[in-house]
Amino acid sequence: MSGFIATLERLDRRWIFLAMAIAVAGPIVYIGITGKTLPETSTPAAQAVYDAIEALPKGSRVLISYDFDPGSSGELLPMATSLVHQCAARDLKMVFIALWPLGPQMVTDTIKRVITADFPQMKEGVDYVNLGFQSGNEAVMKVMLTDFKKAFPKSEKGTATGQIPMLEGVTRVKDFPLLVTISAGYPGAKEWIQYVVSSSGGEITMVTGCTGVQTPQLFPYFPAQLRGMLGAIKGAAEYESLVNASLAPGDNSPVPPKYLEAQRRMGPQLGAHLLMVALIILGNIAFFAQRREKAQVKS
Amino acid sequence: MRRLIPMWIAIIAGFAMLFSAFFPVTEFFGETFGEIFSVVAAIAYVLGAGSLAKINLAKISRRDQGWGYSAITLFCFAATLFVGLGKIGVPPNAQFAALPWSGEKNAEGSAFAWIYEYGLVPITSTMFALLAFYVASAAFRAFRAKNLEAILLLSTAFIVLLGRTFAGVVLTGWFPDWASGLRLENLSVYIMQVFNTAGNRAIIIGIALGVTATSLRILLGVDRSWMGSGGNS
Amino acid sequence: MQVLLSVVASVVSATTALGAVPAPPPPPTSVTAVDVPWDAGGVIEISWIAPAGSADARWLIERLTLTDAAGDEEKWVVVAEVPLGATSHTVSKLSLRGAHSFRMTAIDATGMGTPSATTKPVRAAANFFIGAKLSLFLGIILVSTCVIVCILLARGGRPLRIRRIAALDAVDNAVGRATEMGRPILFVAGIQDMDNISTVAGITVLGHVAKTAAEYDATIQVPTSRSLVMEAAREAVQASYLSAGRSDSYNPDLIRYITDEQFGFVAYVSGLMVREKPATCFYMGCFFAESLILAETGNSIGAIQIAGTAESSQLPFFVAACDYTLIGEEFFAASAYLSKEPDQMGSLKGQDVAKFLTAVVIIVGVVLATLAALAPTGAMPGALTWFKGVFGS
Fold first, then answer.
1. Quick check: ipTM above 0.90?
2. Residues A2-38 pLDDT 10s
3. Span C357-371, mean pLDDT?
4. CA A50, A56, A60, A62 torsion: positive or negative?
């Protein structure tokens, strides 16, 4: 026993890294082979995102801001996919923007995987448009409050915003009945709340999908300033199951894997969390054994 | 004079931004200073690139330890710059099909998009994924039940860790409806929404006051240490 | 155009009356449109006197905008549909250019009624001050007054007691340790630009650390993720070396730009730590996911680590992996605490007074909300609504 305790106290962190690799890789392989995912029940914050989109009349314009980069795409891209899936299925018009330089490529990727593949009837410029990246962080948000087309003068493909049919009548960010931000940090959901939602005097409805570390930081704004929130992959999985349930085809055909990404990732998350619990318990066993040894030496 | 001019620029720009939030007639000044910042930050990229090139070239010429990495850095920097500025492999814009350079640098099929897709995305995702390993080693070391506060922290960690996965449903999903609030998934939401929100709001209020006081110190010229410590010349 | 519309509407109305078919209610009377004062523009309030009508009827509000430019929009656009019982409606998101006229029509299952008289054209003008932000403006004035009064008191020689902050007391020892071990100091001022106040606060701490490092003759490495931060950090460190009388030891190449890319920057800094094994690491600024990677790498090489950030989501990681952490407002107090200048100490005291006032407001709000919940029929709900209104919520 004392040998085991001594090993725990001197444990090289690389063993912990190896254990984490196994805890994450095991479920990935299992889910990859079997295709089985864990069931999800939705929490109020995720349900609110779903309801906010469902409440919009057909043809409403939704502003979707990709405020993340490939680094956090593992956590955020599945929820972005589901958001676009729900918006497209509800015949909403999507205006994509990015305040992070590497955002537009991910917008293109989502458009290709969801809109082009499953909603070929949707036309670029009429049903959706990618306005690309604009530098300036909060400054861009402030300009959008007064003049949207000044903040985004042309689309990713170079078309002037004034010539895009679906943007006719849009002068300010307030002209969008719903604002969605997929946020990984700065600038992100917090800045949108501070500079856009607060400045509009509550006229703008906003929902967000954010990383795990941002979730506790954004809870204080929910639900007054933030109508709904998808916290990390857990929130994404809850939302994804809501969207899949409502859009399920009547013939019981399987849901395509691209719309199950978040639920598939809950398996590795389960493995990682259980390992963390085990590590904390082991760490405390070593801590108490060490403390008892010290007390015995003293006495 | 070397410190006086920056200080006055900070004071004027700061007050202009502040007033533009409350007085619509001054919005123009706020927006203008925001745009000036973007221009200055863009110019600073030249200085940044200069510093990068100078330091790495010096390292290569001195054959310092790890000079090979510097060579790779400079090669990748130059190659990406060339591919992006030269719009290598970029298809022309549909509206101006006759002009080969009219497409966007990161259009699908371009070399820049290829670097992004197969270089940057895997590398940055890998770096982000490292967090899982570091979180595990930090948790192993830091979560020790040293005193009452630490025990509370530990218990909360267990509830949230289990409640955010299917483990919570397996362990406590059988609780009857009248005790549903005690199910781990509901408890973790309650902790996040009530205790965490209360603590976070207190920290946010403190930060907001700290930001206000710091901004005021800079706007009034009381704190000049952002231009270096000591001496007010 | 308006004349034509009203003629068509009158004809439709007359035809319906002759046929004795059930018709929607008549239009409201006295429809007026008024620009909402003290706003940033784009909002007009419409009020009317409503006649009695069928229960399922609604009012349709239409807008006609006449801009100053030629070839402008000259068509009626539906802006809202409101219940029959309503007597006013606020139309927002209007263009600041041109004037807006409104008219109202009843609509129910039988169809549309006749439109009301068109209102006089009104401009949705932007005003001198945004009234909705008055409470925020007064709040800033109040906090600023507290800070300024305390600065003046401090200048007058009044002694100010500030609680000890262990992380800042450890700065000198941490720099001294690096000197003794003959290893460098690493300072990371976050990953954001100079328009972020946390970065500015980080640079102010860098100024103090660099001065101590210059006095101890220790090497300080400052990798930055923004070019502008590199320039600001060079200025700050150079000035500190100058004031310590060690300008000859200043080496600008130790303050270098790496990359804007978050994880590219982290990869470089982690590599630097593993290669050069700094004795002391400072993380002062705006951090995100990279906080734990940096702090854990620093921990693995046995460095003394002092962190400070206003990003509350990153605080747990720094607390877990660093020796000392400046939490939120402590981070912004660092410059004043380290300089011990009366002006700056006064501003800290002012910040405390403002915090006390904020706590009083929170307590009053909580008491009022509790009383209003306990006695929903008394005067308390009204008092709570008034109190919330004062603070603009």
1. no
2. 777 888 878 888 999 999 999 999 999 999 999 888 8
3. 94
4. negative
Report residue B214 as tokens. 């710091």
CA distance C383 to C327: 36
Q: Mark which residues 261-300 of C lie under 8 Å from A by CB.
A: 261-263, 286, 288-289, 300
Percent of chain A at pLDDT > 90 equals 53
pLDDT (average), residues C22-36: 84
Average pLDDT over all residues of chain C: 86
The pLDDT value recorded for residue C69 is 57
* Helix or strand holding residue B7 (H, E): helix B4-20
**Substitution target from B165, B184, B211 for chain A, most A beta carbons within 10 A:** B165
Name C244's Cβ contacts closer than 8 Å, sequence gap at least 6.
B230, C211, C214, C215
Question: Average pLDDT, stretch C29-41?
Answer: 86
CATH number for the region C2-112 comes to 2.60.40.10
CA distance C3 to C5: 5
Q: Which residues of A touch B165 (CB under 8 A)?
A: 234, 266, 269-270, 273-274
Q: Which of A68, A110, A106 is nearest to A88 (CA)?
A: A110
What contacts B132, CB < 8 A, 6 or more positions away? A20, A24, A272
Query: How distant is the Cα of A175 from the closest Cα of chain C, in angstroms?
Result: 7
For residue C297, give the chain A residue with the closest CA.
A13
Q: Where are the domains of chain A?
A: 2-37+262-298, 44-259
Q: Structure tokens of C299?
A: 């921990």
**What is the DSSP code string of C335-362?**
HHHHH--HHHHHHHHHHHHHHHHHHHHH
Element (H, E) at A62: strand A61-67
Rounded to a whole number of angstroms, the CA Rg of chain B reads: 27
Higher pLDDT, C185 or C340: C185
Three-state secondary structure along C229-262? HHHHHHHHHHHHHHHCCCHHHCCHHHEEECCCCH
**Residue spans per domain, chain C:** 2-112, 131-145+344-390, 163-340
Kind plus residue range of the DSSP H or E element containing C169:
helix C166-181
The DSSP bridge partners found for residue A180 are A64, A207
Best mean pLDDT range from A120-129, B176-185, C26-35, C311-320? A120-129
pLDDT of residue A201: 67
Quick check: helix, strand or coil at residue C190? coil
Contact between chains at C193 and B21 (C-beta distance less than 8 A): no
Residues from chain A contacting residue C192 (CB–CB below 8 Å): 186
Q: Which CATH number fits domain A44-259: 3.10.50, 3.40.50, 1.20.272, 1.10.260?
A: 3.40.50
Fold of the domain built from segment(s) C163-340: Rossmann fold (3.40.50)
| Beta strand segments in C92-200, E | 99-108, 111-112, 185-188
Instruction: Report d(CA B20, CA B32) in Å as an integer.
Output: 10
Element (H, E) at B80: helix B67-85
Contact (Cβ atoms closer than 8 angstroms) between residue C311 and residue A209: no
- What is the arithmetic mean of pLDDT over C181-197? 93
Question: Is C207's CB within 8 Å of B55's CB?
Answer: no
The number of helices, as runs of H, and strands, as runs of E, in chain A is 12, 6
Which residue from C minimizes the CA distance to B52?
Answer: C257
Token reading at A254: 């399987």
CB C328 within 8 Å of CB C311: no
Q: Which residue has the higher pLDDT, C63 or B35?
A: C63
Q: pLDDT tens digit string along C322-333?
A: 999 999 889 999
Q: Where are the alpha helices (DSSP H) in A35-71?
A: 44-54
DSSP, collapsed to helix, strand or coil, labels residue A96 as: strand
CB atoms within 10 A of CB B181: 11
pLDDT at residue B232, as a whole number: 41
Instruction: Tell me the pLDDT band of C8, cut-offs 50, 70 and 90.
Output: very low
